[in-house]
Amino acid sequence: MIQRRITFYCCSKGLPSYQLHQLKRLADYFRSSVTLLNLRQLRKADIRQPLRMLSLASKPGELCQLVIQGNDAELAHMVLTEFIAEFAKPVIQRRMKSASSSGLLANIQSPLPFDFSFSVQSISTVDAATPKPKVIASLVDRLNQQKVSTGTKKQLVECFMAREKVSATVMGQQIALPHIMHESITLPGMAVLSSNAGIEWGSNRGPVTQMIAMVLPKPPQRPVVMAFAHFSQCLLNDDFCEALTTAKTPAVIHAIILNALSSVESLS
Fold first, then answer.
1. Do both 125 and 170 map to the same domain?
2. What are the protein's UniProt keywords (predicted)?
3. Within the chain, how many helices (H) and strands (E) appear?
4. Is 61 a domain residue?
């Protein structure tokens, strides 16, 4: 079955009931099912449930997705994208590159109460035939480009591999979360690599298609620990993981991860 997703931020008034009614009327022209997923609340509702839809799309700045599934999902995606572009703020702007659209939406994303390095440019792809040590080395290259550490590439790779020897960092849903806490880390940071096919990660949970590297200073500040712990908890949610692993562009992956990090109440 074909699936397409539209990722967007709610505007200052959210999506009021009359706009949700218009959205439902548009969706009724297609045979595909349409679900609204609020990625901040990690709750979802069928488009035919107006009261539940209203509760999920009423708050400004919240990151949501329309999940469209069915044989005519491609056409429905085109039509509903035009609607969302008019009444909300899609992560992928029409006629604009993903990195540029991410910059335009920066003021919508809830700010983190600590310095943090995670750029759209640190998100890329890797060939499925790449062995795990080389994937780790590539993630470290992207972290070093963000100047998050005073350590050498060799030191950081060794730290990651030592952590992996303790236990493979597979979270389920084909996502690996290699992470370290080290004295050489000067700034919390992240980098992401995705693959179209599974990469063997040495876990009985099977291969992974998305590798998210995290580095934390030692010792970390309390808000940093809270934000990254909450992100780890999000990776236990099937809807969140599916949104992350099916994301096709760096801008959408970036938005989903930043949204999760900033979703903890009272971080500071």
1. yes
2. Phosphoprotein, Sugar transport, Transport
3. 9, 11
4. yes
Global confidence as pTM: 0.90
CATH number at residue 62: 3.30.1340.10
Same domain as 70, residue 142: no
Q: Which domain does 38 fall in, by range?
A: 3-90
In a domain, residue 105? The reply is no
Compute CA 147 distance to the chain's CA centroid, rounded to the nearest angstrom: 22
Instruction: Verify that 201 and 76 share a domain, yes or no.
Output: no
Indicate whether 84 and 128 sit together in one domain: no
- Could you say which DSSP state residue 202 is in? S
Question: pLDDT tens digits, the chain, 268 residues: what are they?
Answer: 899 999 999 988 888 889 999 999 999 999 999 999 999 999 999 998 888 988 898 888 899 999 999 999 999 999 999 999 999 999 986 544 444 444 444 445 556 888 899 999 999 999 999 999 999 999 999 999 999 999 899 999 999 999 999 998 999 789 999 999 999 999 999 999 999 999 999 998 999 999 999 999 999 899 999 999 999 999 999 999 999 999 989 999 999 999 999 887 544 4
Give the closest residue to 214 by CA, choosing from 191, 184, 245: 191
What residue spans of the chain are helical by DSSP H? 17-27, 50-56, 73-87, 98-104, 132-145, 153-166, 222-234, 238-245, 250-261
